[in-house]
Amino acid sequence: MQRYSTQTAIYYPATTFGGAGYPTNATVLWLSGGNADLRPERARTWSTSLAFHPEALSGLEAELTWFDIDYNERILQPITTYDVLGNQTYADFVDYDPTAAAQATALASASNFYNYVGTPYDASKVVAIVDGRYVNASKQQIEGIDLSGSYHVDLGAGRLTVRGSASWLDSTQALTASQTPYDLAGTLFNPARISGRVGVVWNRGGFTASLFGNYKSGVTNTADGRKGASFTTFDSTLSYDTGAGGGLFADMTFQLAAQNLLNRAPPLYVVTSLTYAPYDSTNYSAVGRFLSVSVSKHW
Question: Does the pLDDT value for residue 149 go beyond 90?
Answer without folding.
Answer: yes
